[in-house]
Amino acid sequence: MKIPFNKPYLTGREMDYIYQAVYSGKISGNGMFTQKCQRLLESRYGFKKALLTTSCTDALEMGAILADIKPGDEVIVPSYTFVSTALAFVRQGAKIIFADSRPDHPGIDEDKLEELITPKTKVIVPVHYAGVACDMDKIMSLADKYNLIVIEDAAQAIDSFYRGKPLGSIGHLATFSFHETKNINSGEGGLLAINDERFIRRSEIIWEIGTNRSEFFRGEVNKYGWVDIGSSFLPSEITAAYLWAQLENLDNIQKRRIEIWQQYFAGLNDWAINNGIKMPKIPDYATNNGHLFYMVCGSGDQRNQIINYLKENGIQATFHYLSLHQSLFYKSKQDGRELPQSDRYTNCLLRLPLFYELKENEIEYIINTIKQITK
Ligand SMILES: *Cc1c(COP(=O)(O)O)cnc(C)c1O
Q1: Which element (helix H / strand E) includes 66?
Q2: Ligand 1 atom with minimal separation from the 81 CA
Q3: What is the superkingdom listed in this entry's lineage (predicted)?
Q4: DSSP 222
Q5: For the chain, what percentages of helix, strand and coil (3-state, to nearest 5) are there?
Q6: DSSP β-ladder status, 49-53 and 190-194
Q7: By the 8 A CB rule, do 224 and 5 touch?
Protein backbone atom coordinates (compact mmCIF):
# COMPACT_ATOMS: atom_id res chain seq x y z
CA MET A 1 0.00 0.00 0.00
CA LYS A 2 1.20 3.54 -0.81
CA ILE A 3 -0.32 6.36 1.22
CA PRO A 4 0.67 9.98 0.56
CA PHE A 5 0.73 12.56 3.34
CA ASN A 6 -1.86 14.75 1.66
CA LYS A 7 -4.21 14.66 -1.31
CA PRO A 8 -6.21 17.81 -2.12
CA TYR A 9 -9.90 16.96 -2.25
CA LEU A 10 -12.04 17.88 -5.27
CA THR A 11 -15.72 18.21 -4.41
CA GLY A 12 -16.75 17.80 -8.06
CA ARG A 13 -18.19 21.28 -8.74
CA GLU A 14 -14.89 23.16 -9.09
CA MET A 15 -14.71 22.93 -12.91
CA ASP A 16 -18.38 23.94 -13.34
CA TYR A 17 -17.84 27.11 -11.35
CA ILE A 18 -14.52 27.88 -13.03
CA TYR A 19 -16.27 27.49 -16.40
CA GLN A 20 -18.97 29.93 -15.25
CA ALA A 21 -16.35 32.40 -14.06
CA VAL A 22 -14.36 32.19 -17.28
CA TYR A 23 -17.38 32.61 -19.56
CA SER A 24 -18.98 35.34 -17.44
CA GLY A 25 -16.52 37.75 -19.00
CA LYS A 26 -15.32 38.91 -15.57
CA ILE A 27 -12.30 36.89 -14.53
CA SER A 28 -10.22 39.43 -12.64
CA GLY A 29 -10.79 39.80 -8.89
CA ASN A 30 -13.70 40.96 -6.72
CA GLY A 31 -16.44 39.55 -8.96
CA MET A 32 -19.44 37.36 -8.19
CA PHE A 33 -17.58 34.34 -6.80
CA THR A 34 -15.27 36.45 -4.66
CA GLN A 35 -18.28 38.20 -3.19
CA LYS A 36 -20.20 34.95 -2.63
CA CYS A 37 -17.23 33.49 -0.73
CA GLN A 38 -16.75 36.64 1.34
CA ARG A 39 -20.45 36.96 2.25
CA LEU A 40 -20.62 33.31 3.29
CA LEU A 41 -17.54 33.55 5.50
CA GLU A 42 -18.74 36.82 7.06
CA SER A 43 -22.17 35.45 7.89
CA ARG A 44 -21.06 32.02 9.03
CA TYR A 45 -18.25 33.25 11.30
CA GLY A 46 -19.33 36.78 12.20
CA PHE A 47 -16.33 38.57 10.69
CA LYS A 48 -17.11 42.29 10.24
CA LYS A 49 -15.44 42.06 6.84
CA ALA A 50 -13.79 39.26 4.86
CA LEU A 51 -11.42 39.83 1.94
CA LEU A 52 -10.11 36.96 -0.18
CA THR A 53 -6.37 37.11 -0.82
CA THR A 54 -3.99 35.08 -2.94
CA SER A 55 -2.50 33.43 0.18
CA CYS A 56 -2.45 33.57 3.95
CA THR A 57 1.00 35.11 3.57
CA ASP A 58 -0.59 38.00 1.65
CA ALA A 59 -3.29 38.36 4.30
CA LEU A 60 -0.56 38.56 6.97
CA GLU A 61 1.23 41.21 4.91
CA MET A 62 -1.99 43.20 4.74
CA GLY A 63 -2.25 42.82 8.51
CA ALA A 64 1.27 44.18 8.95
CA ILE A 65 0.42 47.21 6.78
CA LEU A 66 -2.89 47.81 8.60
CA ALA A 67 -1.13 47.60 11.98
CA ASP A 68 1.17 50.31 10.60
CA ILE A 69 4.33 48.37 11.46
CA LYS A 70 7.42 50.57 11.17
CA PRO A 71 11.12 49.73 11.49
CA GLY A 72 11.92 48.95 15.11
CA ASP A 73 8.39 47.97 16.16
CA GLU A 74 8.26 44.65 17.97
CA VAL A 75 5.92 41.83 17.01
CA ILE A 76 5.48 38.75 19.21
CA VAL A 77 5.25 35.53 17.17
CA PRO A 78 5.64 31.88 18.22
CA SER A 79 8.90 30.36 16.99
CA TYR A 80 7.10 27.11 16.17
CA THR A 81 5.15 28.26 13.11
CA PHE A 82 5.34 28.70 9.36
CA VAL A 83 7.80 31.28 7.98
CA SER A 84 5.11 33.75 6.82
CA THR A 85 3.81 34.37 10.35
CA ALA A 86 7.07 36.22 11.00
CA LEU A 87 8.17 37.19 7.49
CA ALA A 88 5.12 39.35 6.75
CA PHE A 89 6.12 41.64 9.64
CA VAL A 90 9.86 41.52 8.91
CA ARG A 91 9.12 42.98 5.47
CA GLN A 92 7.68 46.06 7.18
CA GLY A 93 10.84 46.39 9.29
CA ALA A 94 9.58 44.76 12.50
CA LYS A 95 11.81 43.14 15.07
CA ILE A 96 10.39 39.70 15.81
CA ILE A 97 10.26 38.63 19.45
CA PHE A 98 9.88 34.87 19.32
CA ALA A 99 7.73 33.23 21.99
CA ASP A 100 8.00 29.64 23.17
CA SER A 101 5.26 27.01 22.85
CA ARG A 102 3.25 25.48 25.68
CA PRO A 103 4.61 22.29 27.22
CA ASP A 104 1.30 20.52 26.52
CA HIS A 105 0.59 21.97 23.06
CA PRO A 106 2.61 23.52 20.19
CA GLY A 107 0.58 26.76 20.49
CA ILE A 108 2.10 29.94 21.98
CA ASP A 109 2.61 29.84 25.77
CA GLU A 110 0.06 32.48 26.82
CA ASP A 111 1.38 32.60 30.40
CA LYS A 112 4.84 33.68 29.24
CA LEU A 113 3.70 36.47 26.90
CA GLU A 114 3.52 39.38 29.31
CA GLU A 115 7.26 39.25 30.05
CA LEU A 116 7.97 39.72 26.31
CA ILE A 117 6.00 42.95 26.03
CA THR A 118 8.00 46.21 25.92
CA PRO A 119 7.04 49.82 25.05
CA LYS A 120 7.92 48.95 21.42
CA THR A 121 5.52 46.00 21.16
CA LYS A 122 2.77 46.62 18.63
CA VAL A 123 1.28 43.26 17.63
CA ILE A 124 0.83 39.73 18.98
CA VAL A 125 0.27 36.95 16.44
CA PRO A 126 -1.19 33.82 18.04
CA VAL A 127 -1.14 30.80 15.72
CA HIS A 128 -3.93 28.26 16.25
CA TYR A 129 -1.73 25.23 15.64
CA ALA A 130 -3.59 22.23 14.17
CA GLY A 131 -6.74 24.37 14.29
CA VAL A 132 -6.73 24.22 18.10
CA ALA A 133 -7.44 27.59 19.73
CA CYS A 134 -4.90 29.53 21.75
CA ASP A 135 -6.32 30.82 25.03
CA MET A 136 -7.73 33.98 23.47
CA ASP A 137 -9.15 35.50 26.69
CA LYS A 138 -5.63 35.69 28.09
CA ILE A 139 -4.21 37.13 24.87
CA MET A 140 -6.99 39.69 24.35
CA SER A 141 -6.74 40.93 27.93
CA LEU A 142 -2.99 41.51 27.49
CA ALA A 143 -3.77 43.37 24.27
CA ASP A 144 -6.26 45.58 26.12
CA LYS A 145 -3.86 46.22 28.97
CA TYR A 146 -0.94 47.23 26.71
CA ASN A 147 -2.93 48.60 23.76
CA LEU A 148 -1.69 45.98 21.26
CA ILE A 149 -3.19 44.65 18.05
CA VAL A 150 -3.91 40.92 17.87
CA ILE A 151 -3.69 39.26 14.46
CA GLU A 152 -4.81 35.63 14.66
CA ASP A 153 -2.89 33.38 12.28
CA ALA A 154 -5.86 31.09 11.72
CA ALA A 155 -4.32 29.51 8.59
CA GLN A 156 -5.18 26.03 9.92
CA ALA A 157 -8.24 27.01 11.91
CA ILE A 158 -11.24 27.20 9.57
CA ASP A 159 -14.45 26.19 11.34
CA SER A 160 -12.83 25.85 14.75
CA PHE A 161 -13.95 27.58 17.94
CA TYR A 162 -12.78 29.09 21.22
CA ARG A 163 -15.42 29.03 23.98
CA GLY A 164 -18.07 28.93 21.26
CA LYS A 165 -16.59 31.85 19.27
CA PRO A 166 -15.29 31.14 15.74
CA LEU A 167 -11.51 31.41 15.45
CA GLY A 168 -10.64 34.40 13.33
CA SER A 169 -13.49 36.46 14.82
CA ILE A 170 -11.73 37.28 18.11
CA GLY A 171 -8.54 39.19 17.22
CA HIS A 172 -8.65 42.67 15.67
CA LEU A 173 -7.59 40.95 12.44
CA ALA A 174 -7.21 37.31 11.40
CA THR A 175 -5.79 35.40 8.46
CA PHE A 176 -6.73 32.07 6.86
CA SER A 177 -5.06 29.90 4.23
CA PHE A 178 -6.65 27.99 1.37
CA HIS A 179 -3.38 26.38 0.30
CA GLU A 180 -3.84 22.85 -1.01
CA THR A 181 -2.65 21.40 2.31
CA LYS A 182 -5.47 23.06 4.26
CA ASN A 183 -9.01 21.73 5.01
CA ILE A 184 -10.61 23.99 2.38
CA ASN A 185 -8.38 24.86 -0.55
CA SER A 186 -8.12 26.73 -3.82
CA GLY A 187 -4.59 25.66 -4.67
CA GLU A 188 -3.17 28.88 -3.34
CA GLY A 189 -5.51 31.23 -1.52
CA GLY A 190 -6.23 33.06 1.69
CA LEU A 191 -8.48 35.41 3.59
CA LEU A 192 -8.13 38.48 5.76
CA ALA A 193 -10.89 38.81 8.37
CA ILE A 194 -11.35 42.29 9.81
CA ASN A 195 -13.15 42.45 13.15
CA ASP A 196 -12.19 45.94 14.28
CA GLU A 197 -14.17 48.71 12.55
CA ARG A 198 -11.19 51.05 12.45
CA PHE A 199 -9.42 48.83 9.88
CA ILE A 200 -12.30 48.21 7.47
CA ARG A 201 -12.02 51.16 5.08
CA ARG A 202 -8.23 50.99 4.80
CA SER A 203 -8.23 47.20 4.32
CA GLU A 204 -10.18 47.50 1.04
CA ILE A 205 -7.82 50.19 -0.21
CA ILE A 206 -4.68 48.19 0.58
CA TRP A 207 -6.33 45.17 -1.06
CA GLU A 208 -6.98 47.09 -4.31
CA ILE A 209 -3.48 48.47 -4.96
CA GLY A 210 -3.81 51.55 -2.77
CA THR A 211 -6.91 52.80 -4.60
CA ASN A 212 -10.50 53.42 -3.51
CA ARG A 213 -11.81 51.31 -6.41
CA SER A 214 -14.18 49.30 -4.18
CA GLU A 215 -15.92 52.49 -3.03
CA PHE A 216 -16.20 53.59 -6.65
CA PHE A 217 -17.82 50.29 -7.70
CA ARG A 218 -20.33 50.62 -4.88
CA GLY A 219 -21.16 54.13 -6.14
CA GLU A 220 -19.91 55.80 -2.95
CA VAL A 221 -17.48 58.09 -4.80
CA ASN A 222 -17.70 59.27 -8.42
CA LYS A 223 -14.09 58.58 -9.36
CA TYR A 224 -11.31 56.52 -7.93
CA GLY A 225 -7.58 57.01 -7.62
CA TRP A 226 -4.43 56.39 -5.69
CA VAL A 227 -4.99 57.15 -2.01
CA ASP A 228 -2.63 54.93 0.05
CA ILE A 229 -0.04 52.14 -0.13
CA GLY A 230 -1.18 48.62 -0.96
CA SER A 231 -0.68 45.87 -3.47
CA SER A 232 -2.59 43.55 -5.77
CA PHE A 233 -3.70 41.21 -2.99
CA LEU A 234 -6.95 39.95 -4.54
CA PRO A 235 -7.21 36.59 -6.29
CA SER A 236 -8.86 36.16 -9.68
CA GLU A 237 -12.41 34.89 -10.07
CA ILE A 238 -10.99 31.54 -11.23
CA THR A 239 -9.53 30.96 -7.78
CA ALA A 240 -12.68 32.22 -6.05
CA ALA A 241 -14.87 29.92 -8.19
CA TYR A 242 -12.81 26.90 -7.11
CA LEU A 243 -13.02 28.04 -3.51
CA TRP A 244 -16.82 28.39 -3.72
CA ALA A 245 -17.13 24.71 -4.62
CA GLN A 246 -15.08 23.86 -1.54
CA LEU A 247 -17.02 26.16 0.78
CA GLU A 248 -20.32 24.60 -0.34
CA ASN A 249 -18.93 21.32 0.99
CA LEU A 250 -17.42 22.68 4.18
CA ASP A 251 -19.62 20.73 6.62
CA ASN A 252 -19.06 17.49 4.79
CA ILE A 253 -15.30 17.99 4.61
CA GLN A 254 -15.03 18.90 8.30
CA LYS A 255 -17.12 15.91 9.36
CA ARG A 256 -14.96 13.43 7.49
CA ARG A 257 -11.65 14.94 8.66
CA ILE A 258 -12.76 14.88 12.28
CA GLU A 259 -13.82 11.21 11.92
CA ILE A 260 -10.36 10.30 10.61
CA TRP A 261 -8.71 12.22 13.45
CA GLN A 262 -10.85 10.40 16.01
CA GLN A 263 -10.08 7.04 14.47
CA TYR A 264 -6.35 7.72 14.81
CA PHE A 265 -6.79 8.87 18.40
CA ALA A 266 -8.81 5.81 19.43
CA GLY A 267 -6.49 3.43 17.61
CA LEU A 268 -3.21 4.83 18.90
CA ASN A 269 -3.85 6.15 22.40
CA ASP A 270 -2.84 3.03 24.36
CA TRP A 271 0.16 2.38 22.16
CA ALA A 272 1.32 5.98 22.60
CA ILE A 273 1.07 5.85 26.39
CA ASN A 274 3.08 2.60 26.49
CA ASN A 275 5.80 4.08 24.28
CA GLY A 276 6.29 7.45 25.95
CA ILE A 277 4.55 9.34 23.14
CA LYS A 278 2.18 12.26 23.77
CA MET A 279 -1.13 12.36 21.94
CA PRO A 280 -2.58 15.70 20.76
CA LYS A 281 -4.32 17.73 23.42
CA ILE A 282 -7.53 19.72 22.88
CA PRO A 283 -8.06 22.09 25.85
CA ASP A 284 -11.66 22.26 27.10
CA TYR A 285 -12.11 25.78 25.67
CA ALA A 286 -11.15 24.62 22.14
CA THR A 287 -12.68 22.48 19.40
CA ASN A 288 -10.99 20.12 16.97
CA ASN A 289 -11.40 20.90 13.25
CA GLY A 290 -9.53 17.81 12.07
CA HIS A 291 -6.83 19.86 10.37
CA LEU A 292 -3.92 17.63 11.29
CA PHE A 293 -3.11 14.63 13.46
CA TYR A 294 0.19 14.86 15.31
CA MET A 295 1.97 13.01 18.09
CA VAL A 296 4.96 14.19 20.13
CA CYS A 297 7.66 11.52 20.53
CA GLY A 298 9.95 11.16 23.52
CA SER A 299 13.05 11.95 21.43
CA GLY A 300 14.11 13.01 17.98
CA ASP A 301 15.57 9.55 17.36
CA GLN A 302 12.28 7.89 18.17
CA ARG A 303 10.44 10.30 15.87
CA ASN A 304 12.82 9.69 12.97
CA GLN A 305 12.72 5.94 13.51
CA ILE A 306 8.91 5.98 13.23
CA ILE A 307 8.98 8.16 10.09
CA ASN A 308 11.50 5.78 8.48
CA TYR A 309 9.60 2.65 9.43
CA LEU A 310 6.38 4.07 8.00
CA LYS A 311 8.22 5.10 4.83
CA GLU A 312 9.52 1.53 4.37
CA ASN A 313 5.88 0.46 4.56
CA GLY A 314 4.65 2.97 1.97
CA ILE A 315 3.25 5.53 4.42
CA GLN A 316 4.34 9.14 4.17
CA ALA A 317 4.42 10.60 7.69
CA THR A 318 6.34 13.79 8.33
CA PHE A 319 7.79 16.24 10.85
CA HIS A 320 6.59 19.85 10.88
CA TYR A 321 8.16 23.26 11.54
CA LEU A 322 11.80 24.05 12.25
CA SER A 323 11.93 26.67 15.05
CA LEU A 324 12.15 30.06 13.33
CA HIS A 325 14.52 31.48 15.98
CA GLN A 326 17.00 28.78 14.87
CA SER A 327 16.55 29.47 11.15
CA LEU A 328 19.42 30.48 8.91
CA PHE A 329 17.69 33.81 8.27
CA TYR A 330 16.88 34.77 11.85
CA LYS A 331 19.43 33.02 14.07
CA SER A 332 21.94 35.89 14.02
CA LYS A 333 19.19 38.45 14.74
CA GLN A 334 17.77 36.47 17.68
CA ASP A 335 18.42 37.70 21.22
CA GLY A 336 19.85 34.39 22.42
CA ARG A 337 16.88 33.28 24.54
CA GLU A 338 16.40 29.52 24.62
CA LEU A 339 12.98 28.30 23.48
CA PRO A 340 13.07 24.69 24.65
CA GLN A 341 9.47 23.75 23.87
CA SER A 342 9.70 25.05 20.33
CA ASP A 343 12.87 23.01 19.83
CA ARG A 344 11.20 19.94 21.33
CA TYR A 345 8.34 20.14 18.81
CA THR A 346 10.88 20.75 16.03
CA ASN A 347 12.68 17.52 16.93
CA CYS A 348 9.91 15.27 18.22
CA LEU A 349 6.61 16.11 16.49
CA LEU A 350 5.30 13.73 13.86
CA ARG A 351 2.27 14.13 11.58
CA LEU A 352 0.25 11.32 10.00
CA PRO A 353 -1.55 11.40 6.63
CA LEU A 354 -4.93 13.11 6.95
CA PHE A 355 -7.06 13.93 3.92
CA TYR A 356 -10.71 13.59 2.96
CA GLU A 357 -10.28 10.55 0.73
CA LEU A 358 -8.21 8.51 3.18
CA LYS A 359 -10.08 5.19 3.37
CA GLU A 360 -11.01 3.09 6.42
CA ASN A 361 -8.66 0.27 5.45
CA GLU A 362 -5.82 2.72 4.90
CA ILE A 363 -6.29 4.24 8.34
CA GLU A 364 -6.36 0.71 9.85
CA TYR A 365 -3.18 -0.12 7.97
CA ILE A 366 -1.42 3.02 9.24
CA ILE A 367 -2.48 2.33 12.83
CA ASN A 368 -1.45 -1.32 12.66
CA THR A 369 1.89 -0.49 11.08
CA ILE A 370 2.65 2.03 13.82
CA LYS A 371 1.72 -0.49 16.49
CA GLN A 372 4.40 -2.86 15.20
CA ILE A 373 6.96 -0.30 16.35
CA THR A 374 7.74 -0.62 20.03
CA LYS A 375 10.71 0.79 21.80
C1 LIG B 1 -0.21 27.35 5.76
C2 LIG B 1 0.17 28.37 6.76
C3 LIG B 1 0.55 29.68 6.42
C4 LIG B 1 0.77 30.11 4.98
O5 LIG B 1 -0.33 29.99 4.19
P6 LIG B 1 -0.21 30.34 2.62
O7 LIG B 1 -1.63 30.40 2.20
O8 LIG B 1 0.54 29.22 1.99
O9 LIG B 1 0.49 31.63 2.48
C10 LIG B 1 0.81 30.59 7.41
N11 LIG B 1 0.71 30.26 8.71
C12 LIG B 1 0.38 29.02 9.10
C13 LIG B 1 0.28 28.71 10.54
C14 LIG B 1 0.11 28.02 8.13
O15 LIG B 1 -0.21 26.79 8.53
Answers
A1: helix 56-66
A2: 13
A3: Bacteria
A4: S
A5: 40, 15, 40
A6: antiparallel
A7: no
Burial of 305 (0-12, 13-18, 19+ CB in 10 A): middle
Selection from 231, 233, 247, 245 nearest residue 55 by Cα: 233
The residue whose C-alpha atom lies closest to atom 5 belonging to ligand 1 is 56
Q: How confident is the model at residue 6 (pLDDT cuts 50, 70, 90)?
A: very high
List residues bridging with 253 in a β-sheet: none
CA 265–ligand 1 middle distance (angstroms): 25
Give the distance (Å) from ligand 1 centre to CA of residue 82.
6
- Tell me the pLDDT tens digit for each residue of 17-63: 999 999 999 999 999 999 999 999 999 999 999 999 999 999 999 99
User: Per-residue confidence at 129, pLDDT binned at 50, 70, 90?
Assistant: very high
C-beta of residue 85 within 8 angstroms of C-beta of residue 323: no
Amino acid at 154: A
Taking the centre of ligand 1 as the mean of its atom positions, its distance from the CA of residue 371, in whole angstroms, is: 32
Does residue 375 have a pLDDT over 70? no
pLDDT of residue 374: 79
**Residues 14, 24: Cα–Cα separation, whole Å:** 15
Q: Which of 26, 120, 165, 182 is catalytic?
A: 182
Determine the residue type at 328.
Answer: L
pLDDT in tens, 299-351: 999 999 999 999 999 999 999 999 999 999 999 998 989 999 999 999 999 99
Report the candidate in 20, 2, 1 with the shortest Cα–Cα distance to residue 240.
20
Domains annotated on the chain, with CATH: 14-248 (3.40.640.10), 250-371 (3.90.1150.10)
Query: Among this protein's residues, is 26 annotated catalytic?
Result: no
Compute, in angstroms, the gap from residue 85 CA to the centroid of ligand 1: 8
| Protein residues whose CB sits closer than 6 Å to any atom of ligand 1 | 55-57, 81-82, 84-85, 127, 153, 155-156, 177, 179, 190
